[in-house]
Amino acid sequence: MRRSVIGERRSKSVPLRAPDPNMPGEIVLLLCLIPMAAAGTTAPSLSAGPIVFARNLFRALNEDSPRGNMVVSPAAARSALTLVFMGAGGKSANELRSTLMLGAAGKKDIAKQHAEFWSRECTCSERGAALRLITRLYVSSDLPLRPDFNLKAVEFFNAQADALNYSDADASTRQVNRWLELQTFYTVRNLLTPASFSPESSVLLVNSIYFRAKWAKRFSMDRTGAGDFWINPAQRMELLMMRQVGEFRFADSKKLKASILHLPFEDSDISMMLVVPHAVDGLPELEQKLALLDLNEVATKGLLHEVDVVMPQFKIECDIDLKVPMQKMGISRIFSPGQADLSGLFAKKSPQLISEARQKLYLQVNESGCETDPDTPARAAAFVQNPDRKLFMANRPFVFAIRNNRTVYFVGRFLKP
């Protein structure tokens, strides 16, 4: 068997067990994390595809999702759907190719590009950002997969196919949840329930990103204290607010009516970008404006300034049904009976389709960075007066993104605890 080229660096591929006999069914696509091309526009370059896909996904979610805290991983969603593209044919493959902005290359070249991209992005070290892409395909023992699909999944997506006895839903649920907990260092728990293994379901695709990173300049816990967070102009609540003064990229945008701050992570080109509206109730208008811009365009705004940063500790856990935004973005056939073509995954003319696509994320932000628990940050330095110092006050609902100029790992909004 060929060696997988992505996932955690220096990791080895796991032996693949092909599923058995014959029986049609549906596919359940499950995306889970730890933790944008619009119609009628000029096609972006291939390198811009992940950024534009992120914008389109965030926009589609904002059109329908209830108002509340939200986080999604465009990078993980695009990776998992690229794997589905490898098994799709005909018009189903065309929809995926177009919406994911995969270009005109053949499937093998696209798979190689995916593997090369993630082999550069995925790291696991004590310093810098730890980023780990994890994928596994669970197949009902009643449904045979094409062997060539399994080989591609292992080599180019660090994925493997395991057969599960779906008739024993409790045991299958424990097996998947336990595996994912171990792979994500217990940051993602209880992904599935026995209801996930219904008689109509045959395949689950579990895709996860583990992300851990320390701020390049950490907040001192000595400076964290209670402060007002305005949920709306008439309602506020007391939250733990972190504070530090340092040199950061900062912009005050009249176009967006918002302040923009970039907080870099240690030994990495990944950073967290926060966009805070000027008005306490300005988030809906800000999100409408961001829907017309890709995050790289927003990120170019800002110069290095000394900034007094005040922002809350926060954590978000989010479970998103990706079928609705995907259908809005142009991917519908793989979810539709009689239209789905997954002939590269199963036998030709098989009736399988994607019956469910979910992404569950967990993100925690504290004085150390995106860490499960804060460590001991550097001692707080005394403030020195500077009349040119900027103030960045994230004391109202805001948008955030964890990104570099190649892709968007997380994008979301924080409204209240």
Automatic annotation (TrEMBL):
Coiled coil start-end = none
Q: Could you name the Gene Ontology cellular component terms for this entry? A: extracellular space
Instruction: Offer one Pfam family short name for this entry.
Output: Serpin
Its gene name is Spn47C
Recorded GO molecular functions are:
serine-type endopeptidase inhibitor activity
Which protein family is named in the record?
A: Belongs to the serpin family.
Output the lineage of the source organism: Eukaryota, Metazoa, Ecdysozoa, Arthropoda, Hexapoda
Q: What SMART domains does UniProt report for this protein, alphabetically?
A: SERPIN (SM00093)
The protein's name: Serine protease inhibitor 42Dd
Gene3D superfamilies cross-referenced by the UniProt entry: Alpha-1-antitrypsin, domain 1 (2.30.39.10), Antithrombin, subunit I, domain 2 (3.30.497.10)
Sorted UniProt keywords: Protease inhibitor, Serine protease inhibitor
Please name the SUPFAM superfamilies in this protein's record: Serpins
- Residues covered by the Serpin domain: 55-417
